[in-house]
Every structure is written in C-alpha cells, then in structure tokens.
C-alpha cells in the first residue's frame, strides 16, 4: 500500500469517526430536550394543586437556573480538570445521566395527596442532575465539534427543535397517562446518556493527569488571574430585559396551561395541543426566510401590544370556556411574538428545554456573566408572576401574560433600562 493510500485510509477512518460522534451527540442533545419538555409540561401541572403555595412548585421546578447562575463556574472548573481512564466528561455523563433518569419518574405524582419534602428533594435532585448532565454533554460536544461550523449551527438547533417537538407530541398523545410519558422520557434519557458515554471516545490527552501549570491555566480561565471569585452583578440591559419578558411569557404558559385548563374541566388533550401548536407557530414564523415575512419595519415593536390585547381576549374566552377562541388567540399570540423575537434578535426556543442560549459556552467570560444575569432575570420574572398568581387566582394567568407583553412595548419605547 502506497503512502497516499495509507493517508487516505486514515482520513476515511477519521471522517467516519467524526460523523459517528456527531450523530451520537446530536441524539443525546435531542433526547435531553425531549426529557426536559416532558418534565416541564407534565410534572409542575401535577404538583401545583398539591401545595398550599403553588409558587414553590415553580421555584423548585426551575431550580436548575439557580444552579446555573451560582455553580456553573465551579462545576465547569471541576469537570474540566477531571482526568480518568475514560476521559474527563464520560464519567459525569454516566453519573448525571443515571441520576437524572432515576429522579425524573420520582418527581411525578404519587398516591400521597399532598406535596412532601421527599418530592421536593426529588425535584431539586433532578434539576441539579440535568444541570450537570448538560454541562458534561456540551463539554464533550465542544471537544469533538466546531460550533462555528455553519452546518452545526443548523444541526444543533434542529436537533433541539426535534426533541422538543417530539416531547410535546408524546405528552399530547399520552395526556391520559402522563406518568407513562415521564417514564418513557426517563428511559430515553438513560439510553442516550449511556450510548453517548460508551461510544463517543475521548482523546487520549484527557486520560492523563494534568500538570500543575495546566490546572493553573484552567483555573485562571474560570476565575481570573487574580484568583478571586467575582460575584455576579445583577445589571440588566434593555436587550436582556426584552429577552426575560419574552422568554418568561412562554415559560409561564408551558408550566401553567395544562393545570389551569384542568381546573376549569377543560379537555387536557386540547391543553397539550394548544401548547404544541403555539410552539410550532413561534418556530415557524421565527425561522421563515426573511423574504417570506411581512414587512413591519419599525412597527415591529407594536406587535406585543397586539399580543397583549389577544391575551385579554384569551382571559375572557377562558372564563367563558370558549375553546375555539381561546385556542386561536393563544396560537396567534405565539406567532406574533415569534416575529417580534426574530426582528429583535432574541434567539431562543420558547420552552423550558432551551439549552443553546444558556450552555453553549463553557468558560465563564463577560458574555457568560451576561447570560447568567439574563437567566436570573427570567427566573425572578417567572417566580414573581407565580407568586402573584398564588395570591390572586391561577385563572389570571392570561392577564399577567398580557402585562408582560405590554411591558415589552413600554420597554421598547423607553430610552434605557438601569
């Protein structure tokens, strides 16, 4: 065999390995979005009616955001300096993948009529495990793939969309037995975690002990040359506030829709369908080619005002149980906000499963500080709205969504946000 033939064989093997790793990582990424979608549309809706303080359910269901804001720097550093015989990310994929898949079914409703401390601990364990699993999966992907590749900029969001949409469809068709849906999600997560960890082989350099200088270099990248633990400064810009309001709009719908529709004796299947079609309306309008979209020019900022009016109509339709009107106003609102977010350059999937906008960069930089601040503002917005709903009535959901939409208009018309 000539030298060129040897070179070609090595190139072919490396290419096959690259494609194999990419397919497996995309599978893991899609399965992660599937599981988080199943969790967000099923578990909170089961637990909201079992607590005297429903906002606590939201707090614990979104505790992953707290872990991200306060622990991402430390957990990221720990994961990156790990060296074992099977690599640095693989042990954590096994650990957090198994913990997540085991704790997910435990968060579902049991025969106990009230929310127990054990159930709260399961929620916290699941959120922490998902946080660690996402960090590990993204870390492995960043070692194996180049996120600046135009093809990957399409493939990763597409796999996220596919996982989320499949999770919504599964929840819709399995609305009569949500526990089975949750167990299915747990099995898929366990399967994907083991598959990725077992078949994606890490480079040899991650299997040997790090030198002191290498550890110091990683430490400085995470914590700075001065070796200090800088505290997060919660300063939010207009763009971050806009992101927080728009993302919280969809997050509140995903968490509360099924529960409040059931409280009004409305069909749960239709509730799941509404959430699914709203998601499709947002993503369809958001990703349409620019030449196919309506030209709103500067009037795009008034779209949330239209959404605010539609949410008031949704509240009236919900109170009167006019299902057709309720369905149409919610779906149309999602589509209009999709157009608004595209024109305002707000990049996210309208779901709790969103990973790309938060986890794509592992090392804490100024950009990551901004991401943490943005995510904290989302958490506080959703929690504040949940407390308000607990004090008033959960049926006021659509009025609060109307206020959030109107706040976007006020924000765009204002000069600055301090």
From TrEMBL:
Q: Does the keyword Methyltransferase apply?
A: no
Q: Which domain of life is it from?
A: Bacteria
Record key words, sorted: Membrane, Transmembrane, Transmembrane helix
Q: Where do the TM regions start and end? A: 21-41, 53-71, 92-113, 119-142, 154-175, 181-201, 243-263, 269-288, 300-316, 322-341, 371-389
- Protein name per UniProt: MFS transporter
Taxonomy-wise, where does this protein's organism fall, top ranks first? Bacteria, Thermotogati, Thermotogota, Thermotogae, Thermotogales
């Amino acid at each position: 065999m000539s030298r060129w033939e040897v070179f070609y064989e090595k190139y072919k093997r490396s290419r096959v390995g690259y494609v194999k790793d990419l397919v497996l990582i995309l599978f893991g990424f899609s399965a992660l979005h599937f599981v988080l979608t199943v969790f967000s549309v099923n578990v909170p809706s089961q637990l909201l009616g079992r607590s005297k303080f429903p906002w606590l359910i939201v707090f614990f269901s979104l505790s992953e955001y707290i872990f991200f804001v306060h622990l991402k720097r430390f957990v990221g550093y720990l994961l990156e300096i790990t060296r074992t015989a099977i690599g640095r990310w693989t042990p954590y994929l096994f650990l957090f993948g198994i913990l997540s898949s085991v704790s997910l079914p435990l968060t579902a409703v049991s025969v106990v009529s009230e929310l127990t401390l054990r159930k709260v601990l399961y929620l916290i364990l699941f959120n922490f495990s998902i946080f660690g699993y996402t960090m590990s999966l993204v870390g492995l992907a960043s070692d194996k793939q180049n996120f600046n590749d135009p093809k990957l900029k399409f493939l990763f969001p597409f796999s996220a969309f596919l996982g989320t949409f499949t999770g919504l469809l599964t929840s819709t068709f399995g609305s009569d037995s949500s526990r089975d849906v949750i167990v299915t999600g747990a099995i898929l997560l366990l399967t994907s975690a083991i598959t990725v960890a077992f078949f994606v082989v890490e480079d040899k350099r991650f299997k040997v002990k790090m030198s002191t200088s290498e550890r110091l270099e990683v430490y400085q990248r995470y914590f700075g040359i001065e070796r200090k633990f800088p505290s997060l400064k919660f300063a939010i810009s207009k763009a971050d506030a806009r992101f927080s309001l728009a993302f919280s709009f969809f997050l509140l719908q995903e968490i509360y829709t099924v529960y409040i529709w059931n409280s009004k004796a409305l069909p749960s299947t239709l509730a799941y369908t509404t959430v699914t079609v709203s998601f499709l309306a947002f993503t369809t309008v958001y990703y349409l080619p620019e030449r196919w979209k309506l030209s709103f020019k500067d009037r795009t900022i008034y779209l949330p005002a239209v959404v605010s009016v539609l949410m008031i109509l949704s509240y009236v339709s919900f109170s009167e149980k006019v299902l057709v009107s309720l369905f149409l106003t919610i779906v149309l609102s999602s589509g209009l906000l999709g157009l608004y977010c595209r024109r305002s350059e707000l990049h996210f999937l309208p779901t709790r499963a969103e990973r790309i906008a938060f986890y794509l960069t592992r090392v804490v930089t100024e950009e990551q500080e901004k991401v943490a601040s943005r995510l904290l503002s989302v958490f506080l917005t959703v929690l504040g709205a949940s407390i308000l709903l607990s004090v008033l009535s959960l049926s006021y959901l659509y009025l609060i969504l109307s206020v959030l939409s109107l706040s976007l208009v006020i924000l765009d018309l204002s000069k600055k946000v301090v």
